[in-house]
Amino acid sequence: MSGIELVTEDPAYAFGVLGNLVIAVTREPPSERSVRELARVVGERHATHGDVSLLVAPRAARPTLSQDARRAILSSWEQLEPRITCCAVLFRATGFVGAIQRSLVTAVMNLRKSTLPVRATSLPLEAAEFITRYDASLGAPEPLGTALSEFVSRYEA
């Protein structure tokens, strides 16, 4: 499998692409700027590759959102959701904290009554298995899981 291409990097985030997969590694809680940049990357990838799969790997243990970031997420999500096939959220935390984070993501997505398949996990291979279930063009889960693990590890610091 070829590597994930870094398309934009900032002190707060790094976004990469592989085929129609967009990978967002966030080093800080989302900001209006990072949300708009992610929307731009997803829009560009959708224009060239069709529907997009999304993996978000937040580093912040307890993300906090400004009002501007919340508004940007809500307004962007309505435009992004129809372009996204599935979304995996890769929390690197394990144990109790990781379980809480994964449960919160699942609960929030269920409250939105979204039809978008979402999976929160702490394991890159599980994220890859989930993504390839909805997007076979990305190949086998094992090489994708390895590529995701390497990309996230490289850019989360």
Structure description:
- By secondary structure, the protein is an alpha/beta fold.
- It has a single domain, classed as STAS domain (Transcription Regulator spoIIAA), CATH 3.30.750.24.
- It is 48% helix and 23% strand.
- The chain has five helices and six strands.
- It has a six-stranded mixed sheet with strand order 1-2-3-4-5-6, sandwiched between helices.
- The longest helix has 18 residues, at 32-49.
- The model has no long low-confidence stretch (mean pLDDT 84).
Précis, in short:
The chain is an alpha/beta fold and 157 residues long. It has one domain (5-155): Transcription Regulator spoIIAA. It has five helices and six strands, in the order βββαβαβαβαα.
Keywords:
single chain, 6 strands, 157 residues
* Largest β-sheet summary: 6 strands, mixed
How much of the sequence lies in strands comes to: 15-25%
Please estimate the helix content: 40-55%
- Identify the CATH architecture: 2-Layer Sandwich
In terms of structural class, how would the helical and strand content be classed? alpha/beta
CATH class type: Alpha Beta
Question: What is the count of helical runs?
Answer: 5
